[in-house]
Every structure is written in structure tokens, then in C-alpha cells.
Amino acid sequence: MTDLTAKPDVRPANPNFSSGPCAKRPGWSLEALGDAPLGRSHRAKPGKAKLAEAIELTRKVLNVPDGYRIGIVPASDTGAVEMALWSLLGARGVEMLAWESFGSGWVTDVIKQLKLDDARVLEAPYGELPDLASVDFTKDVVFTWNGTTSGVRVPNGDWIPDDREGLTICDATSAAFAQDLAFDKLDVVTFSWQKVLGGEAAHGVLILSPRAVERLESYTPAWPMPKIFRMTKGGKLIEGIFKGETINTPSMLCVEDYIDALKWADGLGGFAGLRARADANLKVLADWVEKTSWVDFLAVDPATRSNTSVCLKVTDPGILALTADQQAAFAKALAGTLEAEGIAYDIGAYRDAPSGLRIWAGATVEASDLEALTHWLDWVFQSEKAKLPQAA
Question: Domain residues of the chain, as ranges?
């Protein structure tokens, strides 16, 4: 029988399990960025060529359909989502779906900042999804594909009709490159390459369907549009944005890192290889949860369980008997002790989420590291529980 009170012998080779920025690809080093055109204008031929290469590799690895525009935009996924909301919404009513903190943030933008009158919010608690069957697709629909802070994702795109009248605007930042994005169901897709590919942050990617482009060229919002959000000029799409002529100055070092990650992904077989790695990582954690009595997934329905941002809750009766503040302190102690031991960094639950753990399992993480981590999780639980007064 395994002695859970003794520290495990095997340590993760890479203790980086943060949900963003995420672990670099296996084998990464600074030498991989040696071809970055540093000190050159991003508008010069080498810079424009790198940006165009990043866009085309994105299309290849993600299987983005022809006719969809792909642009590199400022301010990470947040910038990409904001560009879409401020540029596209207001033409018709909007359905806002929220089941975790980032989706709730977009609700705040639409209700309190854009102040749209015809806006309905469909919410669900952490661990669940709203009623997808009740979404009104005569309106625009804004949702996250994968709730990064809840570990709950939509199971597929089947709930989105082909004959929808409104646009679907999807924040896919912790889903892209790991989960099947149904592009035929999506009109706007946004993500940051700091997530599944472990790229350096600062930039976002904005993907537009022909229907989204049509909206941009036929509708002018009632509010002033900041320069950094403008995607049209004279009623026409600024095509250069989607050919590598970025709105503001990009970091060519970050772009080179993204290209390196995309080439690594392409070498795995593209999206299928990335998804297989993430699915295998989820299985390691799922197998451990299945045989472990003190922990469970935050996601209620296994069909909605994320294969990237895996959110866990403590279910031990002794811990659940504590106050909410004590439970939160216990979960923080688990994460803090593992960080102090150099075993796992940044795996505490998001600040707005229920107390627990959040372990990144995207494609850049090795399954062997997650396997090693599970033994340490058992050890730290027993260790921290033993410290509680009267052993809860």
C-alpha cells in the first residue's frame, strides 16, 4: 500500500501548470527565436512576411475555412473580443452567455459599457452551462467556448443552427488548438496564443466569417470607435489587418515564438495531434480523480469537462464541514505548499471561482508530468489535512 504521508520520489520535470501564460512546448529554448527580425520595422518585408506566415500557419493548424479572415490584433484575447463587441454589436439584440468569470466580464462590457437595451443574459453557476436550447439565434450570441476559470466547455457546436440570423461571437482562448471549434457555426473566433500553444502574450487573434465581414461593412455603431478597434475604412474592411499589416506595432519576438509553436504543432499532425495530447492529459487527471475520494471535477457533466483548464474541487467530508473561508484557505495551502516544493506553480483556483485547484492540461504539458503531479496532490492533501485542528 502506498504511504500517502511520505513525499513521492518522482517530481514533474516541468512544474509549470499555469492556465496562462501556459507552459512552453517540450524542448523549447531561446535559440528557437533566433530568426526573429529584431530591430526591423514590422512594415518592412521581413516583418510582414513573418506576420503573414503566422496567419497562414494558424489557418493550416486550426483548419480555418477559406474565406474566413485571420488577423493579429493588440491586447491578447481581451483586445480581440473587445474589437468584436464594439464593432459588431448593436445592429440587433444580443444574447450573452456566462458561466464563469470571463464570460461575466463580457456581460459587463455589453450591459454597463455599451449599454445595449436589447440584451438578455443567460447565466449558470460555476460547473454548469446555461440552457443552450433556449438561446435566441435571431439575435447575436456572445459566449466562451471553454470557461477557463470553471473548466466547463460547450460539448460541441450542434446547438447553434445553420440558419441563424444573428452572429455568433466566440471567445475561444483556452479552447483553440485543443477543442473542436465548429467554424461553420462561428462568425467571430478569438484567442490568445499564450494558452494551448504556450506562446508569449500581448497579442490576440481575431477570425472573422464572411457574415461577420458583411456586418462590418453594412453597419456603423452609434458610439465613437477607438482607433485601435477600427476594422473598416470608407465602409470597407481594412484587408491589410488580415494580411499581416497590424493595427499597432507587434513584438516580432512574440510573433517568432508563435511561429515556432505553430511549426511544432504542425509537426505533431496539426490540430489532431494537439487535441490528442490534451485529451491524453485529461485522461491522466480523470483516472486519478476516479480513484481519489477527496477530489472531483468542478464540471458537473463529463461531456462539458475541459481538456485544458481542469478545475477541481475538494470533496472530503471533513474539509466540507469547515466554513467557506476555511475551505478556501485549505485549497490555497494545497497550491502554496506545492509551489514551495517546486512541484506545481500557479494551480490555485481563479480568484472569482469556487475554492479549489486549476491545473492546465493543454498540449504543451507532458502526461508524465501530470502523472507525477497526482501523487504529490495526494501527499499534500494528507499533509495539509493533518495540520488542521482536531484533524478535520
Answer: 38-267, 271-386
Give the pLDDT score at 101: 96
Residue 199 to residue 194: CA distance in whole angstroms: 4
Give the per-residue pLDDT at 1.
39
User: Which residues, 6 or more positions from 5, have their beta carbon under 8 angstroms from its beta carbon?
Assistant: 379, 382, 383, 386
Q: What is the pLDDT of residues 382-392, one digit of tens each?
A: 999 999 987 55
Compute the distance between CA of residue 214 and CA of residue 78 in angstroms, rounded to an integer. 23
Q: What is the pTM of this model?
A: 0.97
The residue-averaged pLDDT of 190-204 equals 95
- pLDDT band at residue 195 under the 50/70/90 scheme: very high
- The answer for residues whose C-beta is within 8 angstroms of residue 163's C-beta and 6 or more apart is none
**Contact assessment for residue 178 and residue 196, using Cβ atoms and an 8 Å cutoff:** yes
Is the Cβ–Cβ distance between 153 and 306 less than 8 Å?
yes
Grid cell 466554513 is found at 323
Q: Domain 38-267 belongs to what topology?
A: Aspartate Aminotransferase; domain 2 (3.40.640)
Sign (positive/negative) of CA torsion 157, 158, 159, 165? positive
CATH for 271-386 is 3.90.1150.10
**If we measure between CA atoms, which residue out of 382, 282, 392, 296 comes closest to residue 334?**
382
